[in-house]
Design brief:
single chain, 753 residues, alpha+beta, seven-stranded mixed beta sheet, six-stranded antiparallel beta sheet, 23 helices, 22 strands, 41% helix, globular, signal
Length: 753
Amino acid sequence: MKKQLLLVAVLAALSVQAGAAVPEKTADTPLKPQPGQTDAALWASRVLTKLHYKPVPLDDAMSEKIFDRYFKSLDAEKMFFTQADIDQYAIVRTRLDDAITGQNLSVPFGIFNLYQQRFNERIAYARELVKQGKFDFTSDETYQYDREKADWTKSDAEVKDLWRKRVKNEWLRLKLAGKDDKSIKETLDKRYEGYLSPSRKLTAEDVFQIFMNAYAMSIEPHTNYLGPRAADAFDIAMRLSLEGIGCVLQSRDDYTVVREVVTGSPAGLSGKIKVGDKIVGVAKDDKSPITEVLGMRLDDVVALIRGPKDSTVKLEIIPADAGPDAKHTFVTLVRQKISMEEQSAKKAVYEIKDGNVKRRVGVISLPTFYMDFEARRKGDKDFKSATRDVKRLLVELKKDKVDNVLIDLRNNGGGSLTEAVELTGLFIDKGPVVMQRNGENKVEVESDTDPGMAWDGPLGVLINRGSASASEIFAAAIQDYGRGLIIGEPSFGKGTVQTLFGLDRFAQSDKVHYGELKFTIAQFFRINGGTTQLRGVTPDIKLPTMGDSDTFGESSYDNALPWTQIKPAVYIPTGDVKEIVPLLDKKHDARVAKDKDFQYLAEDIALVKKQRKENSVSLNEVVRRKERDQQEARSKLREARLLSPTPGADDPILVPDPKEALNKAISASAKTPTGKQAQTPKVAGVKGALRSDDGLQGSERSLAAELEAEKQAKAAKDVLLNEAVHILADEVGLLKTDTRMASRVLPYAADAK
């Protein structure tokens, strides 16, 4: 059905209506659709309605879903739009499908421009409240900090009251942290002013991507539209490499600041770039003039700095320890391939006392299932791969004489399906790993065909709510084969397979880029016939659940695919852990009952869940100060315990890695932005525990303070990892003393007898 004339007429009416209320001081140049975007939207709709695993027609019903999701994407906390704004566009609620198929994106851009107007108005009002600084902290009102499920405000007065409470809460946080009124005013005014800058840098590409994602994610949660730049970022994340100079950058007060220099990169080897340096100009090659980048979007600066391997880039820099008027320095570097080693697999070895003997547990942390697809396709024998890295680490752990291995997949959101299958193959002889069912109900079995195991000893897998997709394929296969213990909390519940589909194939010119679609093409199933979709993987031994299933995980999506099952694959379990799990659970319960740090963490998790359920904070100073004092007292008590000269009697001991020690020695010679030598932070906290609130956000802290806080967070005691290591040490002890049980858990292991 064609509604284009009506759609244009409606837009004209809405533009006049919206424009009439725009104060001159907040008016920004409205964004408009760019050439090629209407074509990209049309081609995307044709692909998604035909090739998606769950094809949904682009009709009036879908338009309503897009409408709701688009407004939610722009204003998730319902702090900018009012119900009147939503009603203003109600006439197009069932016509956004025509905006796509009729190639007229004026309405979605009109909605975004209204959002920009409301954004400017709300921030201006917040700054006025800060300027006045008149808040009564003796009243008993509260502030609801999570408004995602709240209704749209009914009036401008109501939304202003929300902002009054928000500013009042932020003022109170800073006041409780010891700031005086003058300092609070300066901090908050700068904060709200800082919100305007990135908002004004949004482009038509950003708006188009937000709108197209509202469409894509209305079909199913894991379907997305990626603009050209977002597609490049996704590719880098998968292959864990890029071509550049080796600096991690961030925006601070309109400056592009060096946050980290990658060891062994062109920037690191030059010795001319330091953490804290401000990049103010970039010449993308040796023939181009310097482009000033002060105030430029960070991704635009990064695009200038990145380039082909062996090409030249010139940087204009204000040194970290110099003022804004200091003499600028110029550094010329040759771009090289940069490996993102921080996201690569890492190993550690822990020793645990078990009576008069010591057990060794090797831990492999895997942040993502990465693979350099392009390098593998080209036949590069050194292509980057999660499985290859883990296999190499297993060889090293054998030399370290570990008794058990733990694969830490916490917060591993997935990645390559091929990597999940091949990684599983390191721990089973051969056989099916996962099944895929496509939109035509055809089932394919993905199998490990490589005989033998890289590790045939005891095995554990540590998961949490952030373990998704490929992580769940691996954990489920290990569980179904009886190959190892799954420890932690129930996983995310993403049981679908996505593919990337480039839209540039439809472009009429090489200069036009339509972006990519990432959409679901299949659902994967465990070899036992069930699926991880919605329910995730349930651990054999449960640790405290830190996530909230209502707000995080597959079950939090309103349009997630349902759980289902198919006929199981034909496979032979390699072991059986059912008999040993109750024994390990009993030891686990007895140990954590005496573990103060574990109890502290459990208390904090319970407190966070209580606060999340209440979804509000008091704006009364006396009440908040009492709550803060109680938290500070708890923190000091725990800190004193953690800073004791010797670790707890039962704490696993990290075995020093000679290579790691060398790297730390090299890093120790580096200087922090203050010029002082970096110090190894003491363990003064527990991962996941509550922290003292300083009332500040992001770049409001100095870079040195921010980096120090990150070091402290990394050095924090990982109570859940320690307990998982203990569980695996217990398993080793039980298997050593009970040969009958060992023959069931590890029937194939040569030393199980």
